């Protein structure tokens, strides 16, 4: 892992948006800020999630997305994107899914954070951009980003930046976890490798445990918004 940087710190409170003949409360809209914000164990000041069942909480307190993927999405969507375009709190440079591992720890301003799981894209991206295939494309490309849990609370700002504290010894990358979750579903040994990482989020742990028991979750609602 080479030099890393925080390109932007982004926050936004939930808003209600019409989608598929219903109103959806979503926190997908984030805007850059130059302010110093307190990062608690659950979220940044001034930030919120519309669906607290699937977003936010202790293990998904901070959503991170690599700036390196922005040109891909700008071409795919045919538009320029501002920071926070993927609904992320922290836009980074130098932290790609192929390098970042579950359990890696970082200093984020005054806070200390730990990688807990890949981000699982949901239909809120369709709601924002009106492109239904975008959600599956995020999964298929592996350009998902990832989540931090907070180990130590503190002030965070773009200027204070981000720095690596410690790489996790098991070396289970976000890219590998994504592949096991979405593509190589028959690789049960891979699932066991991921489950061996104590720092894996409870949500992903439950999914892989169910897979080993012979069942798979229904992803229709996450991908399309339809129950």
Describe the structure.
With 227 residues, the protein is α+β, with helices and mostly antiparallel strands. The chain starts with a strand and ends with a helix. A hairpin with a 2-residue loop joins strand 2 and strand 3 (22-26). The longest helix is centred in the last third of the chain and has 11 residues, at 202-212. The chain contains 7 helices and 12 strands. The chain is 25% helix and 26% strand. Helix 5 runs antiparallel to helix 6 (202-212). Strands 4-1-7-6-10-9-8-12 form an 8-stranded mixed β-sheet. The model has no long low-confidence stretch (mean pLDDT 93). It has helices at residues 70-77, 124-129, 134-141, 174-183, 188-195, 202-212, 220-224; strands at residues 5-11, 15-19, 22-26, 31-33, 37-39, 62-66, 90-93, 105-108, 111-118, 146-152, 154-156, 162-166.
Strand ordering within the main sheet: 4-1-7-6-10-9-8-12
Radius of gyration: 17 Å
Q: Using DSSP, what is the number of strands? A: 12
Can you tell me the overall shape? globular
**What's the number of helices?**
7
Quaternary assembly: single chain
| Low-pLDDT residue intervals, each spanning 5 or more residues | none
The ordered string of helix (H) and strand (E) elements is EEEEEEHEEEHHEEEHHHH
The biggest beta sheet reads: 8 strands, mixed
Strand content: 25-35%
| Terminal-residue CA separation | 41 Å
- Averaging pLDDT over every residue, what do you get? 93
What percent of the residues sit in helical stretches (DSSP H or I)? 10-25%
Q: What structural class is derived from the secondary structure elements?
A: alpha+beta
